[in-house]
Amino acid sequence: MGSKRAKRKLDNRQNRWFERLIAILALLNLGLVFFDLSYLHLRDFYLQVVPSLAQVYDPVKGVEPHPETQNYLSAVDQLEAQVLQTGLRSPQAESSLAELRILSNQMIEDNPFDLANKSGTLAKIKNEIRLRVGEKSAREAFATFWSPAYLSQAGWQQELTFFNTQIQPLIQTNYYRDINRLGKFVDYFWLIDLPFIIIFGLELLARTFYISRRNPQLNWLEAILRRWYDIFLVLPFWRWLRVIPVTIRLYQADLLNLEPLRAQLNHDFAISFAEEITEMVGIQVIDQMQDSIRRGDLARWLFHPETRRPYVQVNNTNEVKEIATRLVNVSLYDVIPRIQPNIEALMHHSIESTLNESPVYRQLQNVPGLSHLPTQMTENLTKDLSQRAYSTLIKALEDPVGAELIANLITNFRDVLEDELQKKHNLQQIHAWLIDMLEEIKINYIKSIAENRMEKIVEEAEQLRYVSQR
Predict the structure, then answer these.
(1) What three-state secondary structure class fits 1?
(2) Which are the contacts of 143, defined by CB distance < 8 A and separation ≥ 6?
(3) How many angstroms separate the CA atoms of 137 and 124, rounded?
(4) Rounded CA gap, 229 and 22, in Å?
(5) Half-sphere exposure of 344 (CA within 13 A, CB side)
(6) End-to-end CA distance of the chain, in Å?
(7) What is the rounded CA–CA span in Å between residue 106 and residue 112?
């Protein structure tokens, strides 16, 4: 038993090291891919900082010195050598200067920098020459620069030094790329990438075989799709997509911690998804209620429960009737006793107002010794009437016959109320109020979700999950 456990630990450790090795290899390959993709854009930088790297990698991208610009630089070198041998005013030097003027015009007309998308470099060269000689036209500027009179006056050594330090590096950045049979630029990066593709392909086949053995119900295609992201490692195109499997492999090999990012993505996705689902469900429910009110289903549902077909009954109870009964009981046993002083005050005021209209009652108030009698009579009458009315209601509710009479009263009240509510003007007004109320609920419902309340709910859920895990 112990030997099996030790062997399992050893196998897991070996698998872990293999996973890390493949992940590091994939990371190295991804670095080469990004270097290759960015090489032409950064070639000018490499020429200045690491010229040996450019010399080594130019053949991989099919980069060659452009014949026209190289011929131009060679002509400048010949001029410099000729001037050192025979002087600036010699026929040989003047012939070299005339050739450079011709080559300058050809470079401006042909724009050999266009193939390498470096027309901006040619524009910078022309601007530098114009500023140097003080001419507005690039053709005239080159013609002046490569003239014996200008070089003699400005000093040919100084001007050639300017050309070699300011202009020649710009011209050297131009290049030519050969075209293959398919009409595309020559690119031999696939030769560098091929060993990596072979390794990743073999590893993918081995994993697919292992998955298919552990899950016999899967075919090979389904087994490959279990590791769908590894397919990008063997594709000879869209190589930049390899960042997906490389990131996943580094995370699986514990070489990259993506837990904070994953947690934040889950958090943002949960909030966004919950907001959209909650909004859609809430709006749909309220819209269905509004449509039901417009169709008149609400009144039929409330006052004719027998028409709810098909309708699932939870407890075989007429909920509307039970709610009405409960409201009556609550009103009689709980509400009325608490508001009885208010009822007595109202009855006292009503009785007193009625009695004040009687001449006999007013005369009793003027009789000495009996002035307080009408007030006491009114108070006693008020208390007696209110208590008797309340007692009568309680007894009627508790008495079977009284309860039946009250039930008939409620039924009759409901029927009369239904008849009144179903009158066109009442029904339309109530429907309009209910629809407007639901519209307000819907607007405020969406507003409450938009006020980051959903984020608070998600945060509360995450806190509860954290507490449960602890």
Answers:
(1) coil
(2) 101, 104
(3) 13
(4) 14
(5) 17
(6) 32
(7) 9
**What 3-state class would DSSP assign to 403?**
helix
Q: Which residues pair with 175 in a beta bridge?
A: 65
For residue 179, how many C-alpha atoms fall within 13 Å in the half-sphere facing its CB?
A: 6
| Angle ∠(174,175,179) on CA atoms, nearest 5 | 150
Kind and range of the H or E run holding 153: helix 148-154
pTM: 0.58
The position carrying tokens 């039901």 is 292
Contact 66, 172 (CB under 8 A): no
Strand partners, 176: 64
Kindly report, residue by residue over 5-21, the tens digit of the pLDDT.
555 555 566 678 888 89
- Quickly state the pLDDT bin for 369 (edges 50, 70, 90): very low
Other beta carbons less than 10 A from residue 245's beta carbon: 22
Query: What are the beta bridge partners of residue 177?
Result: 63
Q: Sign of the C-alpha dihedral, residues 122, 127, 130, 132?
A: negative
How distant is the alpha carbon of residue 128 from its chain centre? 48
Q: CA distances (Å), 328 to each of 93, 106, 393, 401, in order?
A: 121, 105, 11, 17
- Residue 51 tokens, joined: 């010229």
Report the phi/psi class of residue 235: left, alpha or beta, with left for phi > 0 and alpha for psi in -120 to 50: beta
Cβ 209 vs Cβ 242: under 8 Å: no
Kindly give, in sequence order, each residue whose CB lies less than 8 Å from that of residue 116, ignoring residues fewer than 6 positions away.
66, 174, 175, 176, 177
Residue 414 has pLDDT above 80, yes or no: no
